[in-house]
Hints:
This protein is α+β, with helices and mostly antiparallel strands.
Amino acid sequence: MRIRRAKRDRLLADGKEAYPVTVGRTHSLAEVTESWQHLETGEETQDVVTVAGRVMFVRNTGKLAFAALQEGVGTRLQVMLSLAEVGEESLAQWKADVDLGDHVAVTGRVIRSRRGELSVMATAWTMASKALRPLPVLHKELSEEARVRQRYADLVVRQEARDMVRLRAGIVRAIRETLHARSFIEIETPVLQLVHGGAAARPFDTHMNAFDQKMSLRIALELPLKKAVVGGVDKVYEMGRLFRNEGVDSTHSPEFTSLEAYEAWGDQFTMAELIKELHLAAAEVAGTQIVSTAAGEVDLGGEWRWLSFYDGLSQAVGENVDVFTSVQRLREIADAKGVQLDPAWDAGKAAMELVAELVEPTCVQPTFICDYPAIAQPLARPHRDRPGQIEAWDLFIGGVERGTAFSELIDPVIQREVLEDQSRRAAAGDDEAMALDEDFLRALEFGAPPMGGLGLGIDRLIMLFTSVGIRETILFPHLKPEA
């Protein structure tokens, strides 16, 4: 870095610019590659272009210098500087001033070298941006920690990182196009909320000085979107950042991107059709419906099966278990299966933990685990046929939860009772219990149409097609502070 800084200072002392405003670029590297790809080996043109890019390779010989410039998605183009074309002084300055990682601009003729490499034979060059810090070594594998902490460097040296950015952008675009084709309307709802709700999670708390009011960052998109449906926006969605003050691991990030969509006159079954369509749209962008996961190979084009919560649990433990099974019996089953349960949990939570440990990991092919106990989703409608259960499902692919949906609870009286129970749980020390949102209840009291709603984690969707952890799918994830 001292050497590079000295080169910068020397450029400035000589009256040259190390960081000019513009360099007169006429063509991108991709445009040169596309427009002159027809040149035969050894063929030269009199077509003069000015290109610019980051120096990713350089080789200097006596009377000739070669460099590979890179831009954007990883497009590269060779530039050649010969003593006869650029002159002794300019060639010497190139050798003295240019390092790997610098941005340079090169003006010259487009040719195909005798080795078949499309190139720009320089007649002049200029520094576009002097890099003061060396790039990571290209042929050495960066640690995941280095990749995510210095993503800007990762993007420069690793094609997989650049591909991830574009794959994610393409999948997000495909999701929006699919929803728009179904006449869904995208809206934006507040990130700062007086009352956090819509999920069971611990929020990040902050303070609004203008109102001298404690606020929370949203943990879900649900409640404002349902209010929009009450108002007549029959098909509505939002894709945005959520914030949950919880643990961090390979599948969880405190800040992540979620899609929530709500459809008047829909239910859990219409939402199942929609989430399947969204996955297939993403698969089209990724170029395959066959994906590899840690649990095995998955065929998204195959059957998407339904598995009732208690049926799956009964199969896993070898005896009939249902919503009426006592918490004591569930604890005995858990002990026999080596599953740890919190002594404070009721039967519903105990059953959910057993399913999480014994059933969910076995759901390799797309599986809707449905008919959950009521405690699982305080905002879901009671099941039309199964007392004590709700019309809700979680989608599992590769043994990992990929989305959730339910037939929405729209009875304001029952919803108030459920949220009051959540408030009591919060008062008793449950950090993840929902707060009582009077404005949401007031909206329901105006009359909400029957509706279905779904939630889909965008980061986990990207993970499905890339087989990487969540930190690799988020461009700039949160990390512990550097020492």
